[in-house]
Design a protein that fits this description.
Blueprint lengths: L7 E7 L5 H8 L5 E3 L34 H7 L3 H8 L15 H11 L7 H15 L11 E5 L7 H7 L2 E8 L2 H8 L8 H21 L4 E5 H6 L1 H11 L12 E2 L2 E2 L14 H8 L4 H15 L6
Parallel strand pairs: 1-3, 1-4, 2-3, 4-5
Antiparallel strand pairs: 6-7
Helix pairs in contact: 4-5, 7-11, 8-12
């Protein structure tokens, strides 16, 4: 994509284990989309507000200090998953996946994209995503790409900032029923408690509903259950709203165009099917299910889970 073309951008957001990784992987092989390889994690340590005690800084929309250099701006973006993979691959859970991307070269391209541009947050994030594609040597290009796609858990709580930073940006919030979501969260090495997790789950969905109403042509919400039931239809319907065509590649998750048997190691959802989703919810005890219903009941109906 040429440097002076309008930056078109889709940012996926989802509470942990709500299907954000799955959605990103389903969009991966689409010939009109530039895809980011892992969680984008654009946040910075300078994010400080009333939500920082609940959500990790790396997942937030970033804040850049006024006195940074462009080189410092690049390093300010946390981008943990990708930087670990390309700088210390032996330490990465994605080390088995081939990737030719040099971080020093990406940084140089980032700085070049900012040449002559105002040092705004929007311009810096645009330069970051453009540089990531340009520096990725074995990226599987179609030559038809028009729109960049990123994914960062819970970043939808900052959707108002994203749509204000780019005139052609869209936020896609993914929601999954809280029982299946929490059952998968329990499989993490250090799982959150029901109280902690459900507070974050409810707040993410409240922001998704609020911003979808405030920015109806820019912010959208899709249920994980609808995506796995018919991924081509669910995602094609969304893409049509943002000026992107359908593609048969939406039927299967992939990475850099390579179809995946399982969505692994991208999150704990390995098999994105309706049957697996229901079975996952049934891994919880009756007491856990009841506790989750009590903590989420105020918004379950709004999402079709009543």
């Amino acid at each position: 994509m040429a440097k002076d073309e309008k930056f078109r951008f889709i940012m996926i957001s989802a509470m942990y284990e709500n299907g954000g990784n799955t959605t990103q992987r389903l969009l991966d092989g689409h010939p009109e989309l530039y895809h980011y390889p892992f969680e984008s994690q654009p946040g910075s340590k300078y994010v400080q507000d009333y939500l920082t005690s609940l959500y990790p800084l790396k997942y937030r929309w970033p804040v850049f200090p006024l006195n940074n250099s462009l080189e410092d701006d690049y390093e300010t973006i946390i981008d943990e998953e990708c930087k670990v993979r390309i700088k210390t691959p032996a330490s990465s859970k994605f080390r088995e996946w081939p990737m030719k991307l040099d971080d020093k070269e990406r940084k140089q391209i980032f700085v070049r994209y900012m040449d002559g541009k105002p040092r705004t947050r929007g311009n810096l994030i645009e330069a970051f995503f453009r540089a990531s594609v340009d520096a990725w040597k074995d990226y599987n290009r179609s030559g038809r790409e028009t729109t960049h796609v990123g994914y960062s858990p819970i970043v939808g709580i900052d959707a108002d900032k994203i749509v204000q930073d780019f005139s052609h940006s869209y936020v896609l919030n993914i929601v999954r029923n809280p029982w299946s979501a929490y059952a998968d969260t329990k499989k993490r090495a250090v799982p959150l408690s029901i109280a902690h997790y459900m507070t974050g789950w409810c707040l993410h969905q409240q922001y998704a509903l609020r911003f979808a109403k405030k920015f109806p042509e820019r912010v959208f919400l899709l249920r994980f259950e609808d995506i796995v039931a018919d991924p081509v239809k669910a995602l094609s319907d969304f893409l049509a709203k943002v000026g992107v065509g359908s593609s048969p590649t939406l039927a299967k998750p992939s990475w850099n165009g390579k179809v995946l048997d399982q969505v692994y190691p991208w999150g704990t959802i390995r098999t994105p099917t309706t049957e697996a989703n229901k079975a996952t919810a049934d891994e919880l005890s009756s007491a856990e299910k009841d506790e989750i219903r009590v903590r989420t009941t105020s918004i379950l109906g709004l999402l079709g889970y009543a």
